[in-house]
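Reagents: none. Just compute today. Amidohydrolase family protein.
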Amino acid sequence: MTVPTIDVHAHVLLPEIEALVAGLPGLAGARELDARRNGAEALAVNGPMVRARIPAMTDVAVRLAAMDRQGVDVQLVSPSPSHYHYWSDEQTAEKVWRLANEATAAHCAAAPDRLSGLGLVPLQHPEQAVEALDDALGHGLLGVEISSHAPGRELSDPAYEPLWARAEESGAVLFLHPFGCTLDERLDRWYLSNTVGQPTENAVALSHLIFSGVLDRHPGLKVIAAHGGGYLPTHIGRSDHAWSTRSDAGAGCAHLPSSYLRRLYFDSLVHDPHVLRELVRVAGADRVLLGSDFPFDMGSEDPVGALRAARLTDSDFHAVRGGNAAALLRKD
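Predicted 3D structure written out:
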C-alpha cells in the first residue's frame, strides 16, 4: 500500500473561542502586547491576510480542495496559536480548552479519513494540563498543541512533569508551536517578530526540554517541533560544546544535546532545501515530518515540492513525505 502524504502542520480557526473571550479582562492587554511585538506595519498586513484565509481554516470542503491541489492526503490539524490565550484565569482557561478540543474534533469529524486533530492545554495553569490532555484524547484527538512558554514559566518548569508523564503514558502527540517572542519590540519591524522570533522561540523551548532532563525522564515523549525546530538543529554544535566544557551547562541532562534531536520530531518547514537536508542529517530521516503551516502566508503552498527540492534519497523522501507521520500517528 502506498504511504499517504501527511502534513503535520496545518491550522483550524475557531471563531467560537474568540467569541468566548471577547471583552474579558486581560484580552486587551494581551492584544496590546501582541501589537507591540509585531509592530503596526505587520498588523496592517496580518489582518487582510488572515481574513482571506478564513474559509480554508473553517470550511472543510475548502480545506480538502486545497489539500487535493497540494497532493496532501491527510492533515494533522491544530488550532491557530492565536487561540492559546495564556493570559486567561482558571475558569476562562478551562472553557477555552474544552471548547477548542470539542470544536477541533468536530472539524476533523467532517472528514475523518483525511483530518486528524490536536487540542489545547493551558500552560499558564499546569494543574489543569493533564485534565485538558485527557479531554483532548477523549474527543478522539491525537494530542495537543503547546507554545514555547507561558507567562513566567518555561517548559523546564517542574510543574509540567505531570503533563509530560501523562503524554508519555498515553502516547499523545505534543506539537510545539510558538506564539509570540519575548524579544518584544526589538522585533517590531520587517516582520522580524515571525522570521526571527519563531525560530528563536523554538530553539529556546527545545533547549529547556533538553538541558533540564525532561527527555531523560520521559524518553517516550512524542514532541513535534514546528518550523524545523528553529535555530537549534543547525547550531546544536554550540550546545554540545557548552555541555562538554561547562559544569553548569552539563548539569541537567545525561547526554550530548545533539543526541536528543533523535528523540524529537521536526516538521520540514524551513524554507531552504539546504537547511532541510541538514535537519535530516542531524535529526535523522526518520525524525522529520512534512509540514506546511497551512494556510498562512509564512507556510508553503507546495510542501511536497519543497521537500523534493532537498534532493533526498527516495527512501528518505518518502519517509518525510508521509511514512514517518503514518507510523507516529498510527495512520499506516
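Residues 11 and 78 are 5 Å apart (CA to CA).
Action item: order primers for follow-up constructs.
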